[in-house]
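Re: export button greyed out
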Amino acid sequence: MSANDLTIGIAGLGTVGTGVIRILQAERTYGGSDRTVVLKGVSARDRSRDRGVALDDVAWFDDPVALARSDVDVFVELIGGEGGVALEAVEAALDAGKAVVTANKALLAAHGMALVEKAEAANAPLLYEAAVAGGIPAIRTVRDYLAGVPIASVLGIMNGTCNYILSEMEMGGYTFEACLAEAQRLGYAEADPTFDVDGFDTAHKLAILSSIAFTTRLDASAVQVEGIRGIEPEDLAAAEELGYRIKLLGIATFVDGSVDQRVHPTMVPRGSALAETMGVTNAVSIRGPAFGELALAGPGAGGDATATAVVSDLTDLARGLAPRPLGRPAGMLTPFRKAEASGHYGAFYVRLPIADRAGMFAALAAAMASEGISLEQIVQKTPHRPEHMPERAEQTVILVTYPTTEAALKRALSRIQADEVVVREPHVIRIAASL
Ligand SMILES: NC(=O)c1ccc[n+]([C@@H]2O[C@H](COP(=O)([O-])OP(=O)(O)OC[C@H]3O[C@@H](n4cnc5c(N)ncnc54)[C@H](OP(=O)(O)O)[C@@H]3O)[C@@H](O)[C@H]2O)c1
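Workaround output, generated via the alternate export path:
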């Protein structure tokens, strides 16, 4: 070890933590700067577990907070969780004026502004490239490369678990439940998948990217979130017939000084870069008037890919680079203003379980017409019932609208529900024809 080394302590020796150590041990051969990154201390729960990496000369800390306060230049938080010991340790490191590198989007979504302000007050760097889209350099592209260049929107596939499940459902015709179970077996989904499949993980990443892109304060609570649990194999089959694929997209748009942030399943045209992003791969698209579109794709998760982003942050610190956590000083960020006319404008796909009674089609068409919504397609999915056959409780009808607003569609669907045309909640998927 030399006086010029950048010493680090890593809390969390799981998938990402051990990946970082593997890369750093190989990095001695390749080198990223004139300072060597040296692992000085580690912390995890179980000291006896063999992690498959050499930790012989590295100090062990049972308590991550003690590691954060120890004699290291950088504290690397790879424990996870929006609060608890991860938060305590990051706060302790920043209070001690140490640089922090983390991959923890949940922590940033919940406490991002407070941590950014703490980091600035202590003049301590806070870097988190790994927190958004794993191994894809999404943060630094928006924060550094596009700094000072107007950005109109940031969108993409930012959760590998959901993209894997949707890809498998489409290719095999399997149910959501079967694909989720397979994702859990392969280690792509947690035992409790809520965070991923209900869209919150994507929302956290979107809120972080959107804050940097639009130079606003970070507000993860302002994201409209809808996950993928309601998607059925017939939706994917219908999307294919219509020329689309269904993807869980995070979409943030800057509208007249306000920000619209949404996460929901979206039909995207087959052949587009987003539609062709399959399995656990992530894709981020950034758009602006000066540069058009900048698209990034790559591994959104996985130990080594995510560790690559952590090491990239460490190399920045070793090179003496310490960008502001959100691009510009927290005091210069504008307050977050949620766009009023929030929601999708475009075509919609609607799957309606309707009562099998005469006059239902006419009632549907009348409700849509009352909101000025024209229908491009109306398809009865349940086979026609001859008059001599007994009535079924319900049949499935699929509508594809011409472009309209989300608000108008919601009003039309409320009317359909009030008139007891549908027997259960309609299922709506937005169609993004021009992505
Ligand atoms: N995995 C990915 O692909 C990925 C992608 C992007 C971002 N991330 C983020 O990276 C972070 C780490 O994820 P991961 O997948 O590496 O998690 P993980 O495999 O579950 O590892 C978590 C580590 O934290 C340690 N830990 C938990 N509680 C602790 C405590 N109280 N004190 C000390 N150590 C404690 C665990 O110790 P033991 O090993 O002893 O139990 C384990 O080593 C999370 O914020 C995650 O959101 C992960």
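The domain at 345-431 is CATH 3.30.70.260 (Alpha-Beta Plaits). The button fix ships in the next patch.
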